[in-house]
Amino acid sequence: MADVYEGRVGHRLPLLAPARTCEHRRCGGGANGAAGPGIPCGKSAAARECVCNGELHFVTISPWSRSYFGNGHDPGPAVSAFRALLSLGEKEFGDSWRIEMGRGVFEAHHMGDILSRDPEDVFRTISTFGIVTFSLRGDNLREELSCLGAALGRVRPHPHSDADGATTIAPRPGTDLRAGQLGFSREHLPPHTDASAMEFPPDLLLNVCATPAARGGEALLVDMRAVLARALQLHPGMFERLLTPGSAIFGTPGHTRAGSVFELCDGRVHVRFRQDDGMFFNANVLAEATALLGLVDAMTVQLHLKRGQGYIVDNHWWLHGRTRFDGPREVIRILADVASERADGVPMGGFPWQGVSALRDQRQAGAAG
User: Fold this and answer.
1) The model scores a pTM over 0.85
2) pLDDT by residue (tens digit) across 165-191?
3) Could you tell me the domains of the chain?
4) Using CA atoms, how far apart are residues 320 and 275, in angstroms rounded to an integer?
């Protein structure tokens, strides 16, 4: 198997191959394992094993790890290993497929002038599919998006937002590539969920394009329900392994949270996921995590948004990101929270999954025993 998987969206990650140096990181040992990763031990080891004196370790397989940094314009050919693993052809990995599927996603879930629609219709669509797309026609897109966010729930302020709760996502001078800052550069932003290190991440993410890029800057979207369905065909035990509390650590030094990629919440599956230095996997789930990253890459679709076009995604279900771009580009973002269940009984947050109730009962029985 190849030493490195080179993705078509411009990143690289270790692929279950022997590593010259152990990249496992010691947990800081805080309450409930929440202190976060420490420094690499530096020992010689295989990437799939932990031989660091039996201590609990975490490993980052981030595509944006400094040692695996890729070129957004020239990602190179994808290795055949994941194609064979997924039993998919060349079409499923090409940019033309991503664009074609992205166009289909936009059209299938398009609600037109969404401000004229009943918010309950919007909630019902998001609860069923996790996404809606829309087109705004006015001159003040920021004000329109703010009105839309307020109609759907409580707008959640963000450290980068202005007083109205909206954030302008555009290149900022001097931006580095740390976790949480990449959005303000022109670099490729791998698909992720927002605020993954928070106890309660926001429910909805609303993005509208104010200024399209001259080249690049396509929105990237990933339906994690579809990813999970495909993953279970290839790796039947992946779901339960990545449900394990403490199998992942989210955040940056000084603000970290032990958790998992998948969580069960009120009979639905919630997702927390990043592909930068803000997420570390427990070395015990490295095989599952690496396979999941490959599936996410393979099933990412691209949307070329014009001015006024945008999308709303369930932040517990869909991943979002963007490709590298040239020149100016501006997107307006709002984060919002909604009630866990609407007055008309429409559930919100995450996606339904067959077998969730049985798995929950099985875990409760095991804990009781």
Assistant:
1) no
2) 899 999 988 776 666 678 889 999 999
3) 98-368 (3.60.130.10)
4) 11
